[in-house]
Each structure stands twice: as C-alpha cells, then as structure tokens.
Design goal:
176 residues, mainly alpha, 8 helices
Length: 176
C-alpha cells in the first residue's frame, strides 16, 4: 500500500498542473459508466458490417459490470484514496463505490481488447484512449495504482474471454 501512495504522490509532483486539472476530469467523464465504450459498441452494432464486434463489446462490458463492479468490488471492499485522505482537493465528485478494481479501467480495457482483436489498426485509437482514462483515475486521486492494474488485468481477461468465446458461439450460428 505504501508503494500505491508513493506513486499517487509522484503523479501529482510530475503531472500536477492547471492544464491537467482541466483535462483529466473530462477524460475520466468519458469512462463514467463505460459511457464512451457503450456508445462505440452501439454504433458498431448499428453497422451491419461491424455488428458482431459491437455485440461483443457490449457483452464484454456487461460481463465486466457483473464480475468487476458487482462481485470483486464488493468482496474486496477497498476504500478509495480520497476517502482515506479527504484533505486532497478533488476535481470530481467523491465516488460512492469501492476502489478495487478500477471500473473505468476495466471497461476501457475490455472494449479496447475486443476492438483491437477485431481490427488491429483501430487499436491505435482505443488503446491510448483506455490508457488516458485509466491514468485519469490516478491523477484525480480516486484509485490506487494497484486498483488500475487489477482493472486492466481483469479487463484483458474478460475482453479475451468475450472475444474468443463470443466468436465461437457466433460461428456456430447461435447468435447474430
């Protein structure tokens, strides 16, 4: 846990600025409730050419909601850094749910994994966006680095599982 605090402090020392204070809440907003990824999933679902991947992104996000936010967060019940150090000036509202794993990171990595597996060239857009959303959670002092790492690992696992199992089911003609 001390390493988590050291990293959070270093992030503020290195990156803390008026520009970042302006930018990071906007980047984190994109990840609220997986909003940007849900929008992308729905847009892909609407397109006949990309319907399969849109479906898989939305299913992956649902799996992440159930596993990460519904089960793991409540089992671990880890307090957030902003709860433990309420003197830190927050730039966003104090989150009400637990810290571990980072749901913003998990949703971003699930979507980025599935989308990149589908179209490698799209990874140049979705991977940096998911990294920016994950970093925003650290900058804004609402997650520990280990929360973000856990969210990323869980996101990769759920993304891979959804992509490969979903494609197998779709190929068998059971869906879409």
């Amino acid at each position: 846990m001390n390493l988590d605090w050291m990293i959070l402090d270093k992030i503020q020392d290195i990156f803390g600025s008026g520009f970042m204070d302006f930018l990071m809440p906007k980047i984190t907003f994109l990840g609220n409730g997986g909003m940007i990824w849900i929008i992308i999933g729905v847009l892909l679902l609407i397109s006949k050419k990309h319907r399969k991947i849109g479906f898989l992104v939305l299913i992956g996000l649902l799996m992440g909601l159930i596993i990460g936010n519904g089960i793991v967060k409540n089992l671990v019940a880890r307090p957030r850094p902003c709860w433990l150090n309420p003197d830190f000036p927050l730039l966003i509202s104090v989150p009400k749910d637990y810290s571990f794993p980072s749901g913003h990171t998990q949703a971003s990595v699930i979507a980025a994994t599935i989308i990149t597996l589908y179209r490698k060239e799209w990874g140049w857009i979705v991977i940096p966006l998911s990294v920016a959303i994950a970093f925003s959670r650290l900058y804004l002092y609402v997650h520990f680095p280990s929360d973000v790492i856990a969210g990323a690992v869980l996101g990769i696992l759920i993304g891979l599982g959804t992509y490969f199992a979903g494609n197998k089911i779709i190929r068998r003609g059971k869906v879409l």
